[in-house]
Amino acid sequence: MFKVKDFANIRDERQRDNYRLAEIANLKGEHKNINPKAMDRLVAWTGHSRARLIEEANANELVSKLLSYCTAINASRQGTKDEAYVINGIANVLKKHNIAISNLATDELVPIKNGDILPRAQAKKYFSKNELLKSFDFAGKIADHNVDILGFAKVCIGQGGHQDNVYMETTALLEWVQKHGVATTLYVVLVDGLTDGALNKYKNLKSNYNLKKVFIGNHIEFQDYMIQEYGKQ
To answer: If DSSP codes are grouped into helix, strand and coil, which group holds residue 208?
Structure first.
């Protein structure tokens, strides 16, 4: 089960993951999952070649840790959003159950009030701005059940207007699903970083709209639901 311990410090968790990935890459002499410019700076500063640094890292755990610390990708500068990090973590768990989900590019799939789903660039040519809803954040397929997945994901940190916006976006999406939802598609609203009370406010929306093919909850509840309902036993 993929779990984020503390959403208030999610970037710290992502950074620790980056350190681990960099250490693995360095020990194997691979170029992926490291910052190449940081490695070049380290080579220039130490006066030792990359090959020599990797050799020392393989021989000494402390050197290995320090090398990963110096060459890891900086989480705060990654293009990957916190939501994308969560979806990637969930995807790694669900793929074991023949359930595939992946992040969508920004504005790749935008629901239109008339029921269409289009890339935003294309939708803007034919529809006014107020006819376009928030884009879906991830999509997927439950192959064994022939069910598609379209999802909206949000990490809410702190109180105030941001949460209000997310709630309004969720309400608009559920209204759209009620009118235009497809029976063979599971629509997911994934909201994390909320208190139980605040999350229940979102869950209550499902009953308000009498929707069956909709899941609303946090990333742990979503994994439990998918495995129990659709996973390989």
So the answer is: helix
Q: What is the mean pLDDT of the chain?
A: 90
| Ordered structural domains, the chain, with CATH | 7-76 (no CATH), 82-230 (3.40.1350)
How far apart, in whole angstroms, are the C-alpha atoms of residue 224 and residue 143?
18
Dump pLDDT digits (tens) for 32-44. Answer: 999 999 999 999 9
Can you spell out the DSSP letters for 50-110? Answer: HHHHHHHHHH-HHHHHHHHHHHSPPGGG-S--HHHHHHHHHHHHHGGGTEEEEEPPTTSSE
Cβ atoms 21, 72 nearer than 8 A: yes
Kindly give, in sequence order, each residue whose CB lies less than 8 Å from that of residue 113, ignoring residues fewer than 6 positions away.
Answer: 127, 131, 132, 133, 176
Mean pLDDT of 82-111: 94
Asked if 107 contacts 121 with a C-beta cutoff of 8 angstroms, the reply is yes
pLDDT for position 210: 72
Give the chain's largest Cα–Cα span: 67
Determine how many CB atoms are found less than 10 A away from the CB of residue 218.
20
